[in-house]
Design goal:
467 residues, alpha+beta, six-stranded mixed β-sheet, binds alpha-D-galactopyranose
């Protein structure tokens, strides 16, 4: 079999090995008889952090590390799920209108999230759920876990694409990205759509300037002399515990800032900072922050009472809108005030940096790009308060090793940093990280902890030959 676009020989071999564990639909016709393989990459975000859920742009690259899901129709209305890594137990669950999640932290919840997304997207005629084919699926994930490189998006995207293929359902890449954008909500994180969009829309040798509502993408060519170094702090950024609570808290803080700012500017119906930016095009970040500062104290109580008074809405209504309802409701630690001003200052200033970054990167001005990345990290550390001492150290090491710039990447609170450097100085950057950071953790850091990653192709699904 020749190597399909977007795949490499290693991935194809992985898919073939997984296929041996999936029985094709013997004696059946059409899609039901075939074996499909979907690959979806992780991503590293160059800049534009914690902007996506405010509907503001990001600049990630899809990376050359992927998750592969091989799938074939089975004769049940169930998903039968196995993982190439025996550490992840097999699972089996029914395809139904509302798929109940497993316990928090179960790996297969990401698979359920993806299947639920497909059901929600396609089941306007309610009968579709009953007609969906069940599938046997085997997963092989090679995106480092809990490292801020979107292993979860790689899993949800590859699952959704494999499941759609089994069922003969088709969407274009933007529609697919829109469908899976909210898949993390299923596991309780109110994440934006960057990770899934990057995984789907990735382009070899390019960064992606992605805008939201609706999703749009502009591919930005990576300059030939630019290298992307990613280093994992080994501080687990597991989204099922503390990180999720901190993340969701930031989402609420940004939403409050947006509503208060919209009210101060008399913008009707605006609920996210992206809405403010679009409705007030003449205002720059500093002016918007000033306007917000005049309208609200820097911090507000976590019970949302003060916020409701300022907005002139009943507290219960605001709570329902911002926190959601039922089991998925966000629980805010009531003993800490909500930071309104700092969070808005990060998001609005970061937006200006992302827009500039897309242009300077395209123009090959890596020095300027590095400065924007450094400013992004400072803003994330000081105003968004999602860096850690270990991430700060890693960033310092990368800069000392000669990177143009470095910053935490992904949600933060652990996970990885990304550094941009000249191809010729990538080794020196890695050495500096090894000496200044990993030497204190272990003797000799494995390649998987820090590496030069390349901007790779987005997700795709192929037919595998059946025996
Ligand atoms: C996580 C989320 C993304 C995004 C980043 C922060 O990766 O999944 O949607 O919000 O954090 O930029």
């Amino acid at each position: 079999m020749s190597i399909p676009d977007g795949w490499d020989a290693g991935e194809l071999a992985r898919a073939a090995r997984l296929a041996a564990r999936v029985p094709a639909g013997a004696g059946r016709a059409g899609a039901a008889a075939r074996i499909f393989a979907a690959r979806a990459p992780g991503r590293v975000n160059l800049i534009g952090e914690h902007t996506d859920y405010s509907g503001l742009p990001v600049l990630p690259v899809a990376i050359d590390r992927s998750t592969i899901v091989v799938a074939a129709a089975n004769t049940t209305a169930e998903i039968e799920l196995a993982n190439a890594d025996p550490g992840w137990p097999s699972r089996r669950f029914a395809i139904e209108r509302r798929i109940p999640p497993y316990e928090t932290g179960d790996w297969a919840n990401y698979v359920k999230a993806a299947i639920q997304g497909v059901i929600d997207r396609f089941s306007a005629p309610a009968t579709l759920v009953d007609n969906l084919r069940g599938a046997s699926m085997v997963v092989d994930g090679r995106v480092p876990l809990a490292a801020g490189l979107s292993s979860s998006a790689a899993l949800t995207v590859s699952t959704a694409m494999a499941f759609m293929a089994v069922n003969g359902l088709e969407l274009d890449p933007i529609e697919t990205a829109t469908m899976v954008a909210r898949s993390e909500w299923y596991v309780g994180t109110r994440a934006g759509g960057m990770d899934q969009a990057a995984s789907i829309l990735g382009r070899r040798g390019h960064a992606l300037f992605i805008e939201f509502d609706p999703i749009r993408v502009r591919a930005v060519r990576m300059p030939a002399n630019a290298a992307i170094v990613v280093a994992d702090s080994r501080e687990i950024a597991d989204k099922s515990g503390m990180v999720r609570a901190e993340y969701n808290r930031r989402v609420v803080e940004c939403a409050l800032a947006a509503r208060i700012l919209a009210r101060a500017l008399k913008l009707d119906g605006v609920t996210i900072l992206g809405g403010v930016v679009r409705a007030a095009p003449g205002w720059n970040a500093a002016e918007l922050v000033e306007k917000l500062a005049a309208a609200v104290p820097a911090r507000l109580g976590a019970d949302l009472k003060e916020a409701a008074d300022i907005l002139g809405v009943p507290q219960a209504v605001l709570e329902a809108e911002l926190l959601g309802q039922g089991a998925a409701r966000i629980a805010l630690d009531a003993n800490r005030p909500l930071e309104i001003l700092k969070r808005a200052r990060h998001v609005l200033s970061e937006t200006e940096r992302v827009i500039r970054a897309a242009d300077v990167l395209e123009a090959g001005r890596l020095d300027e790009m590095g400065k924007l990345m450094n400013a992004s990290h400072a803003s994330l550390a000081d105003d968004f308060e999602c860096s850690t001492a270990r991430l700060d150290t890693l960033v310092e090491c990368a800069r000392r090793g000669g990177a143009f710039g470095a910053r935490l990447t992904g949600a933060g609170f652990g996970g990885s940093i990304v550094a941009l450097c000249d191809v010729a100085s990538a080794d020196a950057v890695i050495e500096s990280i090894d000496r200044g950071y990993y030497a204190k953790l272990a003797r000799g850091a494995p390649e998987s902890w820090r590496a030069v990653l390349h901007a790779g192709a987005g997700a795709s699904v192929i037919d595998l030959p059946t025996a």
